[in-house]
Amino acid sequence: MTETLGVLLAGGLARRMGGGDKPMRAIAGRTLLARVIDRIGPQCDGLILNANGDAARFDAFSLPVVADTVEGFAGPLAGVLAALDWAAQHRPHVTWVVSAAADCPFLPRDLVARFHRARHEDEADLCVARSGGQTHPVIGLWSVDLRDELRQALVVEDCRKIDRWTARYKLATVDWPMEPLDPFFNANTPEDLGAAEELAKLDD
User: Which of 18, 64, 76, 196 could form an S-S bond across to 27 if both were Cys, CB 3.0 to 4.6 Å?
Assistant: First the structure.
């Protein structure tokens, strides 16, 4: 399979969770981030973590921590751009990066394989995930070749919405079932953490 770098996006401000590092919240005795790593790590040829601030707080996970290269908390596209830039500099033979939110503890174990299959079959430039009729643009497959175009969109055009940027390219959308649980469930609020505790019983 095509060599693919994974980036876990943890650069948000977690306002609805009351601030702090949302991926470090725990469900069923394990952090969201640890669960995400277990899910997506085996599918990738290396993982990096996109986060801003003191990288030392993630030392226990032994992952390279890559901050946004665009100032002002420009959203998940800034994290994707940071990952594409990191790949170009540190892993120049890698041409694809898969992104996932670091607060999605139930990610599909076939995410990367299905993305590449859809990208190849549709001759697409990019891929995103969908479940229950809802697109999850943060869960995507990105070509390193598009990093300069993404930088132009973010820095010059102030284009921060993922859907607005991906609309410029041929996009493959890959569907996953919602049963027994939504694989793209993410924890945004304290109430979501409670729901995730129950979902974890179905997942473990």
Answer: 196
- Cis amide leading into 42 (omega within 30): no
The ranges assigned to domains in the chain are 4-203
> Could you give phi then psi for residue 138, rounded to 5 degrees?
-70, -25
* pTM check: above 0.85: yes
Q: 4-203 adopts what CATH topology? A: Spore Coat Polysaccharide Biosynthesis Protein SpsA; Chain A (3.90.550)
> 183 and 133 in contact (C-beta within 8 Å)?
no
Report the C-alpha gap between 158 and 137 in whole angstroms: 18
Ranges of H-type helices in the chain:
32-40, 76-90, 111-122, 147-151, 162-166, 190-203
- pLDDT tens, N- to C-terminus, the chain (204 residues): 689 999 999 965 444 444 557 888 888 888 999 999 999 999 999 999 999 989 999 999 999 999 998 887 788 999 999 999 999 999 999 999 999 999 999 999 999 999 999 999 999 999 999 999 999 999 999 999 999 999 999 999 999 999 999 999 999 999 999 988 899 998 877 777 777 676 777 675
